[in-house]
Amino acid sequence: MTIRSFQPGDLPQITAIYNHYVEHSHVTFDVAPRSEAEATAWAQKYADTGANRLLVAAAAYASSQPYRPKTAYATSVELSL
What is the mean pLDDT of residues 57-77? Predict the structure, then answer.
């Protein structure tokens, strides 16, 4: 399996995966699907390197993002698969 950094062309597929789980489960804690604008804003907060990245694979994606905004949490990340 190849894992690589996110590219803008990946966003429709990632959004479809995410929205499927919004609509058919409780695992996301969201109650409404992400719009294209919301998905774009979400994807733009990631970098190609460092602790907060958006990665894609053939049939999945993973992201790491800041755990909490307080300075003490600067080295902690929350992971979504």
Answer: 86
